[in-house]
Automatic annotation (TrEMBL):
This is Tyrosinase copper-binding domain-containing protein. Pfam families: Tyrosinase. Keywords: Copper, Metal-binding, Signal. Gene3D superfamilies: Di-copper center containing domain from catechol oxidase (1.10.1280.10). InterPro entries: Di-copper_centre_dom_sf, Tyrosinase/Hemocyanin, Tyrosinase_Cu-bd. It comes from Schizothecium vesticola. Residues 87-104, 248-259 form the Tyrosinase copper-binding domain. Residues 1-19 form the signal peptide. GO terms for molecular function: metal ion binding; oxidoreductase activity.
Length: 323
């Protein structure tokens, strides 16, 4: 009888532990008034203008990581420096969620009071070039020139001069201009510009139905996420070279959309999925990822654990999305 009671007690204790959030053995405190991130086209002109001016302001601020370039360049440099640690593995989601938070705080230091916004490229997948995010006044400008350099020639960011390409100083082979090279569409073959068919509603519906975390991450990262990079940047544009893609301010709206899609997936079964995190690391041996893994930020911000960025209303985060 005593042995049976002991087994029962262990069983009950184990169930209690398993019922606790995976972030730790005690419930996490959540924020009470989360800010709401909205889609770019739903923002007012004043909000869009304030965001754009703050993004431009980053190019006037000194580096925070000891470079001789600007705070704007810090983001592209760090993304390239850490590229192999933050892509093609589970940390892709939480690291970029943290990166967005760091960028948002930098915008606040430049006078912007709102949140990062997102570009809902799913809604624009049938005709990406007509998306409001590419407006030349209220958006991020259109395409680059039809030359080898593909330099952006319109919009508020046409005069930005990224200092690094794949983490190295620019040279004559990658001129210091913000470059875009949209992939053309071929309507006669049913091919939409900027690979729009790769992030259409049916594609996202299929991906969103996946219940396994690592499979969901792999399909979203390798499918729609990669298609936007290649479709907007092409082979020679900043968005096209994923390591240097934060050179284009549009990167942050793109990744806010990726974060939103992960957030929506988490919300479908929040008790189970909020801290669902696993899969092999790309470290040569496939070490299993854990919530205690460190997300490096290369001196731009503190290195923190994955668990801090799984819940958008817990830890250092306090935001949600409008839909």
């Amino acid at each position: 009888m005593k042995a049976l009671s002991a087994i029962t007690l262990v069983s009950v204790s184990l169930q209690a532990v398993l019922a606790l959030p995976q972030a730790g053995l005690s419930p996490r405190q959540t924020c009470s008034s989360p800010k709401v991130r909205k889609e770019w086209s739903k923002a007012t002109q004043a909000e869009q203008s304030s965001y754009i001016q703050a993004a431009l302001c980053l190019a006037t601020k000194p580096s925070k990581i000891g470079l001789k370039t600007t705070l704007y360049d810090d983001f592209g440099y760090i993304h390239a420096l850490l590229f192999g640690q933050i892509h093609d593995q589970p940390s892709f989601f939480p690291w970029h969620r943290y990166f967005l938070d760091v960028y948002e705080k930098a915008l606040h230091d430049c006078g912007y009071s709102g949140t990062i916004m997102y570009w809902d490229w799913v809604a624009d997948s049938a005709a990406p070039a007509k998306a409001k995010v590419f407006d030349t006044v209220r958006g991020f400008g259109t395409n680059g020139t039809n030359t080898r350099e593909h330099c952006l020639v319109d919009g508020p960011f046409k005069d930005l001069r990224p200092a690094y390409w794949n983490g190295e100083p620019r040279n004559e082979f990658n001129p210091p201009c913000l470059a875009r090279a949209w992939e053309p569409g071929y309507p006669e073959f049913g091919v939409i510009e900027m690979y729009g068919e790769s992030y259409s509603p049916p594609v996202l519906e299929r991906i969103n139905a996946i219940e396994d975390f690592d499979e969901f991450r792999r399909d979203l990262e390798g499918g729609p996420h990669a298609a936007i990079h290649g479709g907007v940047g092409g082979r020679d544009g900043d968005m096209g070279l994923q390591s240097s893609s934060p050179n284009d301010p549009l990167f942050f709206l793109h990744h806010a959309q990726v974060d939103r899609l992960w957030w929506r997936w988490q919300q479908q079964d929040a008790p189970r999925r909020t801290f669902m995190y696993y899969g092999p690391k790309q470290d040569g041996v496939g070490t299993p990822a854990t919530l205690d893994d460190i997300l490096p930020m290369a001196k731009l911000a503190a290195d923190l654990k994955v668990r801090e960025f799984m819940d958008t209303k817990g830890g250092p985060l306090c935001y949600t999305y409008d839909s």
